[in-house]
Write a structure and sequence with these properties.
The chain is of the alpha/beta class. The protein has helices at about 1-20, 90-100, 125-140, 140-145, 155-165, 200-210, 215-220, 250-260, 285-295; strands spanning about 25, 45, 50, 60, 75, 85, 105-110, 150-155, 185-190, 235-240, 265-270. It is about 30% helix and about 15% strand. The strands form two sheets. The protein has an eight-stranded mixed beta sheet, sandwiched between helices. The longest helix is centred in the N-terminal third of the chain and has 18 residues, at about 1-20.
Length: about 300
């Protein structure tokens, strides 16, 4: 009896271990592109679940329990105004939630735009997002993933990065000699920064394109202006009373999707503020359940 209990315990331990994250994977083991030597004081920090000063970006995989994976995957871009990353409630917690529905999740610890460490800070975060998509597709067989079901989700400024990834994929800002498809198959944008026009989150805009950007740069990174018929289907969530990132960001992107004939859903809460992560505490509704149903209806959760 004791032997049987020990065997069961070991099996359970193995399952739990598999469901947790593996070691972070360096995006650029041979050297980070578009980089310059960081100042001595510029070192990665992780304080109060906020990561900043990232110089060596990584992708941390979270695998579902053995036998539960359905082949779908999603890359997670935490928010933080392009100055830090809310790595827990907009990163690891979200990854584990996707694991529950059989989706393999990857938390992206991306570089935050900075003239101190980048030759061109405007493309730094997008390089890391594109490299993540490239890496997941390159290692899809190893991880048992379907290259036709690779998604991306972003929160706040991470939503700007995700929306950039789904509207700027035709122009590679990384080395892509094997011509790997950099277009995600679907996207989820959570209270996202979308526009750098008058409805912009000014901190995100300034951090990415500077204090005095040209009109051309403002338009380029106002992603509602970059939506085309090739933009992947997108699921958006926002609260009407968001005082950090105006709800018109999501509305503008959704309107552009409708005009371009891109499939998607827009879920608006009357309250909830900004940065609520998985749970909007003003309502009993859970956006993740709606997201799951949307993914299932589009076939990304498999048969």
């Amino acid at each position: 009896m004791r032997t049987k209990l020990l065997t069961v315990s070991l099996m359970m331990l193995g399952t739990l271990t598999f469901a947790q994250s593996t070691q972070p994977i360096k995006l650029y083991p041979k050297g980070v592109p578009n980089s310059k030597a960081a100042p001595a004081a510029y070192a990665e920090k992780n304080e109060n679940s906020r990561v900043s000063m990232v110089t060596d970006p990584v992708l941390t995989p979270f695998f579902p329990e053995k036998g539960k994976a359905n082949g779908a995957s999603i890359i997670i871009c935490p928010g933080g105004g392009y100055s830090r990353l809310a790595i827990n409630h907009e990163g690891t917690a979200v990854a584990k939630k996707f694991n529950e529905i059989g989706v393999t999740a990857f938390v992206l610890t991306y570089r935050l735009p900075s003239d101190a460490i980048m030759l061109d800070k405007t493309i730094g975060p997008l390089q890391d997002a594109q490299r993540s998509i490239q890496l997941v597709r390159q290692r899809s067989k190893e991880w048992g993933l379907d290259t036709g079901r690779v998604g991306i989700i972003g929160f706040s400024a991470g939503g700007h990065l995700a929306s950039t990834a789904i509207t700027h994929f035709n122009k590679a800002v990384i080395d892509n000699k094997d011509n790997v498809n950099l277009r995600p198959n679907f996207a989820v944008l959570m209270y996202p920064v979308i526009s750098f026009t008058e409805i912009a989150h000014k901190g995100s805009r300034e951090n990415l394109i500077g204090k005095t950007p040209t009109p051309q740069m403002v338009d380029l990174y106002s992603n509602e202006k970059q939506v085309t018929a090739q933009t992947p289907p997108t699921f958006l969530v926002h609260a009407q009373d968001d005082k950090t990132v105006p709800v018109m960001n999501s509305i503008a992107f959704y309107e552009a999707m409708v005009k371009a004939g891109v499939k998607g859903e827009l879920h608006l809460y009357q309250a909830g503020g900004h940065g609520f992560g998985l749970v909007n505490k003003t309502t009993k509704d859970e956006w993740f359940n709606g997201c799951k149903s949307w993914m299932d209806a589009n076939g990304w959760l498999g048969k």
